[in-house]
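CO-FOLDING WORKSHEET

Operator: S.A.
Ligand of interest: flavin-adenine dinucleotide
Run index: 377
Mode: holo prediction, single chain
Checklist:
[x] sequence pasted
[x] SMILES validated
[ ] output reviewed
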Amino acid sequence: MSRSPQTEAEQNIALLADDKFTEITRVPIWDPEQDDVLVCRQVRQETHDVKTFVFSGREPRAFRFYPGQYMTFELPVEGRVTRCYTISASAARPYRVEITVKRVPGGPGSNWLHDYMIPGKEITVSGPAGEFTTDATTEEKLLFLSAGSGITPMMSMTRTACDLSEPSDLHFIHAARMPSDIIFRDELALLSAQNPSLKLAFTCDTTLASHSWSGYTGRLSLPMLSLMSADFMDRKIFCCGPALFMDGVRNMLKQAGFNMEKYYEESFDFGAETAGTHEEPASVAPEISDQLFRVSFPKTGHVVECGPGMTILSAAREAGLMPVSSCQRGICGTCKSKLLSGRVDMQHGGGIRQREIDQGKILICCSSPLSDIEVEL
Ligand SMILES: Cc1cc2nc3c(=O)[nH]c(=O)nc-3n(C[C@H](O)[C@H](O)[C@H](O)COP(=O)(O)OP(=O)(O)OC[C@H]3O[C@@H](n4cnc5c(N)ncnc54)[C@H](O)[C@@H]3O)c2cc1C
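OUTPUT RECEIVED:
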């Protein structure tokens, strides 16, 4: 007869080895309607200005998300700011989520995370949410184009595909300032070595004599892209990076005559135009679309008329108010307010929970009145 397990490691191995295995996988699912606190478990320095933060629930939770989705973090800086971060981890490893954050000079959110988020610290979040996703084990040929911290959604998609089986036919191209700025460089090289269908190419704006560099040098261009991915015209393309990078990619692909219906991008910058990532909030129902409604803000006594399809955020601004807001797409939750009376048409993108809607909360950036309304700002 074998002796009983003594240490924690022995107990875990015993659990895995016997029929209790099913019990340890029956971890409750993270429910975005109920669960909203993550605990930091680990911080990893990826490059000189990029860190990965590993989180799990207070109690064990299994996170269900599509690779490429993000979570929205409420950060206790300057009162409270909300920032979205893509889950960089594999969706096939559901008990932890990871985000990989670049320190933006002067940026309140990223600097707070870098300076104050340490193991044991708790943070309020919502999500996962987002539409920018693909299954990299699909039959379709894929091309990922990323730059800087825009690598995170592609990394989650790649890690997930490698965990589940193997990417079917994936070209992954990443652009960085210098070799030392390439996030996940070693891991990607390893994944590529283990998965022959994952072809990898890096390009750097500049290199120093001290860097041993055998990759491409210079900004991504059409001739360079053709060398890195000869059949790029036949691929479905996913792109994420700074606005200038994505502008350049779009122009390059249009110049090559690429079918832009097979092009998807995610912008990390709410101020920038994006393609294929979100739909504009729908305007109000057509039968009442020519009506004007009174939008009242009782706290300040302001009243303004709201025209067809106009959001309450725009109405508030017209009234001279300056409510806090960020994404203007119903994603980040920054502008959450209480609807005191009346009805609205809210076309949000995951920035509010059903239980909050049930409590009469709305996101004013993506809500238009369907009657006269009163809003608490
Ligand atoms: C859907 C979504 C997913 C995101 N995922 C990630 C992620 O995985 N990793 C990550 O690091 N960031 C990610 N971001 C960006 C992140 O939400 C913050 O905008 C970023 O951390 C900067 O916040 P801040 O408060 O420090 O600076 P802010 O005050 O918000 O920004 C300061 C300035 O820096 C610019 N800027 C913002 N983000 C970046 C960036 N990443 N690189 C260069 N310049 C930037 C802004 O345009 C602004 O001009 C994501 C954003 C969105 C909308």
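REVIEW:
The pocket of flavin-adenine dinucleotide is lined by residues 70, 83-86, 99-102, 104, 107-111, 148-149, 152, 242, 268-270 (CB under 6 Å).
Residues 273-288 have pLDDT under 50 and may be disordered.
[x] output reviewed
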